[in-house]
Amino acid sequence: RLISGSAQKDTLFQSALQRRSTKEPFTDRAVPPSDIAALARAVIEPVRFGRPRDSAQRVTIADNAWRAWQIEQETPATRRESIELMRFGNDEVVAQPDGIDMGGTFLSAAHAAGVVTPETLDTPGSAAFTSGFDMYRAMVDATPEWIWLTTQTNSRAAQLAAGRSWVRLNLAAQASGLAVHPWSHALQEFPEMAEPYAQLRSIAAPDGGTVQMFARLGYGPEVQPSPRWPLETKLIDA
Predict the structure, then answer these.
(1) What residues contact 30, with CB distance under 8 A and at least 6 apart?
(2) What digits encode the pLDDT tens for the residues 88-99?
């Protein structure tokens, strides 16, 4: 419920309309320690912010991220789960703007030509299936920094705090000109993902706890906002 009264304005709010998840390769520009520190300050208790301790660990984490993506893509059940959420072509994106956006000029044309369809994306060896590997491999290779959020427990309160912290971190990144891209594949708890899940947890939460968020961080291109349902479609007259 809304309560009238005075409230202190959070400076992060000014970046709310610019917040993005940048699913693109980043530049090779290093992220300065001052900007890393600003992201860490945006996180609220009991959530903890983390990043690789050195270049060797950064390579290990990148390898883990790539292996986890491959597992998700090569496991039929998880691959199809993503495909079912895809909206193909501009018309479908507009009609149902709540899934994975496969619109735009190129993808719309590829869908119309029958090259990128739910069936081709679910067919190992097809051009559409293979192109996904090339696209995501390029993202992993073009990632100067990896970051994560952890909590000691996995209570509902801890999960909510992690969600709040992630939004605040994303806003802080936007304010600093940084781009973030959630990379949640290794955080999924299905049997085929057990090894990457355990390795990431051993690095990000060596003293126990839960890795709540894992992401790429760097400098990327400007991207358009994701499609959203119009506000009036979600309002209920009381």
Answers:
(1) 144, 145
(2) 999 999 999 998
